[in-house]
Amino acid sequence: MSRSKLSAIERRLFPPVVASQASRRGLFRDNAPFDYGWMPTGGPHEIFYEQCGKRDGKPCIILHGGPGGAINPTMRRFFDPDRWRMVLFDQRGCGRSRPNASLDDNTTWSLIEDIERLRIHLGVEKWAVFGGSWGSTLALAYAIKHPERVESLILRGVFLLTERELRWFYQEGASMLFPDAWESFCAPIPEDERGDMIGAYHRRLTDPDRRVQAQAASAWSQWEGDTISIRGPEARPSKFNEVDFAIAFARIECHFFANRGFFAEDGWLLKNIAAIRGIPGWIVQGRFDVVTPMDAAWRLCNAWPEARFEVVWDAGHASTEPGVIDALVRATDQAYSVA
User: Fold this and answer.
1) Which of 88, 272, 313, 323 has the fewest CB atoms within 10 Å, counting from its CB?
2) Are 21 and 322 in contact (CB under 8 A)?
3) Nearest to 77 by CA among 20, 35, 119, 130
4) Residue 64 bears catalytic tag
5) 265: which residues sit within 8 A by CB, 6+ positions away?
6) Active-site residue among 45, 64, 255, 317?
7) Could you give the angle at the alpha carbon of 136 between the alpha carbons of 131 and 137, nearest 5°?
8) Contact 202, 164 (CB under 8 A)
9) How far apart are CA 197 and CA 55, in angstroms?
10) Distance CA 291, CA 181 (A)
11) Domain extent listing, the chain
12) pLDDT of residue 99
């Protein structure tokens, strides 16, 4: 096919072929935080944050997934610690933020306020924003609301939090690829409630009985863990097996999804994408991502043609798959040069 016949998105894809294992880049070295603390929000939540890398380096904020996940040391290693000042924080109810697993005043918009509050607290004028999965959703929403504070966007496993995506993963779609794992996911839910799996799980995850919450949280977390990587269940994050983590993760994630991300309308992110058209962007997507299928990244690239788009042909959803690591490390290196 001639170059002239390629689509606009195909011309922006990089690289055009699967990189060899030998040529792929790995994570940067581990680096301990040089600062950490808890930031008050003016309400019931206190947000745990940490800073890593170079104190006077180029600032970036790293947004974890879920909603309901937490930061971890691997997330620091996508950025060169000799050049970047990395800021990470546990979102409301997650990780070391307090109180744990709380749904009170926990919405997309309150998290965006927390990002701005943290930016001001740390004296940052503008920063690169990095996020994968739900982190990509939050990164896009933050950039739409505060484009003047975003120097660049680096996204992985794009999730637009639309009704279509939620139905794919929690109702019908992914279930056809993983019928064995889906059967386990359905097991805690009576047959007459399975027409709305998110609603059925939401009732159990907000039940006052912690035992009911724990049973539902275990099944909810296992479903995501079983589908996260082409490497199979062994790639499931070990934290999913910890009761406290699983409850916080499942409660908060289901809370956001039952409320459709707290967006005013379905497809809100793409309908407001004009706000970020001038922001440099990098998008990395696993071709065989079942959790957040490539369709969302494709639609985002059509709406945001300035972004560079890389499809990793031998990867699923996990950020730790070799091809995804390679693509993200190259993206953060390129983002460092943005003026």
Assistant:
1) 313
2) yes
3) 130
4) no
5) 271
6) 317
7) 140
8) no
9) 46
10) 13
11) 3-162+263-336, 164-258
12) 98
> Cα(61)–Cα(86) distance, rounded to whole angstroms?
6
Give the sign of the dihedral formed by CA 280, CA 290, CA 88, CA 327: negative
Q: Which one of 97, 133, 152, 229 is the catalytic residue?
A: 133
Q: b/e string for 197-214 if b means 16 or more Cβ within 10 A?
A: bbebbbebbeeeeeeebb
- Per the CB < 8 A criterion, the answer to whether 309 and 336 are in contact is no
In angstroms, the Cα distances linking 48 to 91, 126, 132, 180 are 8, 21, 19, 37
φ, ψ of residue 256 in degrees (nearest 5): -70, -40
pLDDT digits 0-9 by tens, 20-47: 567 899 999 999 999 999 999 999 999 9
Concerning whether 133 is annotated as a catalytic residue, the answer is yes
Is 136 tagged catalytic? no
Tokens of 182: 């889906």
Report pLDDT digits (tens) over 77-127. 999 999 999 999 999 999 999 999 999 999 999 999 999 999 999 999 999
**Residue 322 host element (H or E):** helix 322-336
Which helix (H) or strand (E) element contains residue 132? strand 127-132
Instruction: Quote the CATH superfamily of domain 3-162+263-336.
Output: Alpha/Beta hydrolase fold, catalytic domain (3.40.50.1820)
pTM of model > 0.90: yes
- Output the CA torsion sign for 220, 225, 226, 227: positive
In three-state secondary structure terms, 290 is coil
| Dihedral angle over CA of 14, 16, 20, 25, nearest 10 | 0
- How deeply is 101 buried, as exposed, middle or buried, from its count of CB atoms within 10 A (0-12, 13-18, 19+)? buried
- Report the 3 state secondary structure along 86-117: EEEECCCCCCCCECCCCCCCCCHHHHHHHHHH
Q: At what angle do helices 210-227 and 243-258 cross, to 10 degrees?
A: 80
